[in-house]
Amino acid sequence: MRTRMRRDGELFRRMIDVASQVAAATASTVGVRVGTEEPEHTVEAAVGSVEIRRYRPRIAAETMVVAPEEQARNEGFRRLARYIFGANHRRAKIAMTAPVAQQQAPAGGEKIAMTAPVSQSKNASGAWVIRFFMPAKWTLETLPIPDDEAVKFVAVPEQRFAVLRFPGARDSAAVSAKTAELLSTLQDSEYKVVGEPAAWFYDPPWTLPFLRRNEVAVPVTKS
Predict the structure, then answer these.
(1) What is the tens place of the pLDDT at every residue in 92-144?
(2) Which of 7, 21, 124, 156 is 20 to 30 A away from residue 66, measured at CA?
(3) How far apart are CA 120 and CA 174, in angstroms?
(4) What is the topology classification, in CATH, of domain 37-223?
(5) What is the model's pTM?
(6) How many CB atoms lie within 10 A of CB 23?
(7) Do residues 68 and 76 lie in contact, with contact meaning Cβ atoms separated by under 8 Å?
């Protein structure tokens, strides 16, 4: 009797494992993120459809690309992906996180403090900073050194963001429209914009549009 119960228990566990693997494989096919780590944050409030989030300090690997918006995003993504897939001095692989952030590079080459996702924005020179946020277990001391000198590390401080989430298209027209909606929503609120808007992208390009998680965000302070 006990032997049969053990066999049944083992069979049940195997069925659960297989079901989980099938679900993960199916989700991956349509571009749904499964078990991807995201930067730790808390939701403090809501202003209409806009969330006010506070992000904890984290570490990002970033690179600067001078190119049109989508080209910069793609080139920066590939450069950072090579690093986490083993193009580093220890040939170590680092887990992918979400989102990817693309942020406008400020004049003078100073770094912009960004939190959460791939984020995107640009300056007059057409320079963009693309960031991957490192899994929480890594520190500046333990991260492997990139082979590509164009990949740098930055410690991102704790920061509050107003965030508007949207599915579907993530081209410049869609991002611009949602950014305008975000800023308009905040106009008469108790939150004051203290930085430049950015766009955050959580899903791979092949994700079905209605399943995509895109966000526009802007640093804010409470007045």
Answers:
(1) 999 989 888 887 776 544 433 333 345 454 554 578 889 999 999 999 999 99
(2) 156
(3) 13
(4) Multidrug-efflux Transporter 1 Regulator Bmrr; Chain A (3.20.80)
(5) 0.73
(6) 12
(7) no
Question: Tens of pLDDT along 38-50?
Answer: 989 999 999 999 9
Cβ contact 156:91 at 8 Å: no
Q: Strand 191-193 relative to strand 58-66: parallel, antiparallel, unpaired?
A: unpaired
**Closest to 36 measured CA to CA, from 27, 47, 26:** 27
- SS3 letters across the chain: CHHHHHHHHHHHHHHHHHHHHHHHHHHHHCCCCCCCECCCEEEEEEECCEEEEEECCEEEEEEEEECCHHHHHHHHHHHHHHHHCCCECCCCCCCCECCEEEEECCHHHCCCCCCCCEEECCCCCCEEEEEEECCCCCCCCCCCCECCCCCEEEEECCEEEEEEEECCCCCHHHHHHHHHHHHHHHCCCCEEECCCCEEEECCCCCCCHHHCCEEEEEEEEEC
209 C-beta neighbours (distance < 10 Å), count: 12
